[in-house]
Amino acid sequence: MPWQERYLDRYYRRRPGWIDGTTEFHGICASYLPRGGRILEIGAGPSNPTSRFLAELGELHGVDPDPAVRANDSLSSAAAISEDHYPFESSWFDGAVSNYVAEHVSDPVSHLREVHRVLKPGARYILRTPNRYHYVALGSAFTPHRFHLLVANWLRALDSDAHDPYPTVYRMNSESALRTLAARTDFEVELLRHVEKEPSYGMAARLLFLAGMLYERVVNATDRLGALRANLFVVLRKRA
User: Fold this and answer.
1) For residue 162, is pLDDT > 90?
2) Which domains does the chain have, with CATH numbers?
3) Overall average pLDDT of the 108-119 stretch
4) Rounded to two decimals, what is the model's pTM?
5) HSE, side-chain direction, 13 A CA sphere, residue 143
6) Helix axis angle, 108-118 relative to 175-184, nearest 10°?
7) Half-sphere CA count of 111, side-chain side, radius 13 A
8) 76: pLDDT strictly greater than 90
9) CA 142 to centroid of chain Cα atoms
10) Mean pLDDT of 34-60
11) Spatial distance between the Cα atoms of 199 and 73, rounded to a whole number of angstroms
């Protein structure tokens, strides 16, 4: 067994009550999305666990700038888009989801207005995205994208055929930014949670893993350090 799996088992999976970030995010989706409704996955990409999970909840449609979205076998329809305009009628979806997409959005107001347009009144937009004040996002923000191409997949110990990281801008990646943007686009913030899980960017070396684990233990020890946790889990509700 690789050391990464042994460390995850020892320090995380065997801890009482521990749940990984993707499972927790999927649980939030299941809690806020109506069963059997139409769901829009923004940034759906090729086939992936979140698409498969959402397809079990309802009729799933996907949009993504990457044409690889057309190969996503969980989608009822797939559209490759070049801007914040989705090929759907207004007030058509019962919910929308994006998973690690908001950090790439260069015009968050246009993005949220388009999501708002296609949602039914009272429907939710559920998203998971990095917190710009976490050390990984700060490192990303202050280094060029060509550096990310060299190190991001290596730090996560991803396979050589893994997709290169997309450029990040972090324009809607803090609690204050999200609350301001929600108010501007007629969304209500129903949930905004700071979450720190296992050190996914510490999989390249044991020392990096242990340093990331120490950080995780510290920021999870008190809510006063919650704003330094890695991710934001957010539920925005379109006002009825």
Assistant:
1) no
2) 3-238 (3.40.50.150)
3) 98
4) 0.95
5) 14
6) 50
7) 23
8) yes
9) 21
10) 97
11) 30
